[in-house]
């Protein structure tokens, strides 16, 4: 099995986990708020990062001074991205947010293919374009309009390819769990301060009600899926990896129907077809 094929399989696995993120977050945020959901999830995830690093003897990687530039830049960008997303969620809808976040695929193509040196062969490029079109059909609501929340999230989407670049560079020096543990330790105090300043305090009852969902977000999304993401980054191009995120809205629609009884609209069902076709093309080996 080639390294690129390994990356594709990792991406398929993490799309299943990441597709639960909006569903679990909606429930958790109803109890503790957006920034507190982010903060508590990071706290829980941090315990797992430390345990994994200890078991796999990864702490010695932090002695490598050459890694710190990319680790610090990764931390800065990823913390900024999620801060903008969570603050932006105060002023916009989940549908708008999903559309704008997915635009990171277009920013990836602009940064690394048009302006940069990272190239995709024609078949994979066609597949990526088809996947993007299908995802936009699924996600764009009829009353789509931009507001200040949308602009904040658009800024985060523009930053996403940058953090992927620095994570890919950091992976040369450190394991995925070390990168995630470092960025959580350094970024968590900033997130906690924002949650304290911008949101009301959380009662014990509300925290306990949100805890099962916070635990699932932390372990499934911030630990397992993020480790898979960084490992996939180390095996395939950033543009192709970002394009494969088009599978997520399909998964989210399916799980939301099962868990939340949300019936997909006709345009969303239509959009699944090009996503699946594009997914087949983008993962097809080229001779």
Task: List strands and helices in order, with pairings.
Blueprint lengths: L2 H16 L2 H12 L1 H22 L12 H21 L5 H9 L1 H11 L7 H18 L8 H23 L5 H23 L5 H30 L4 H6 L3 H14 L5 H17 L5
Helix pairs in contact: 1-10, 1-12, 2-3, 2-10, 3-9, 3-10, 4-8, 4-9, 5-7, 5-8, 6-8, 7-13
Element order: H for helix, E for strand? HHHHHHHHHHHHH
Radius of gyration: 18 Å
Helix residue percentage: over 70%
Global morphology: globular
- How many individual helices? 13
Strand residue percentage: under 5%
* Residue windows where pLDDT falls under 50 for at least 5 positions: none
**End-to-end distance, in Å?**
15 Å
Structural class determined from secondary elements = mainly alpha
Question: What is the arithmetic mean of pLDDT?
Answer: 79
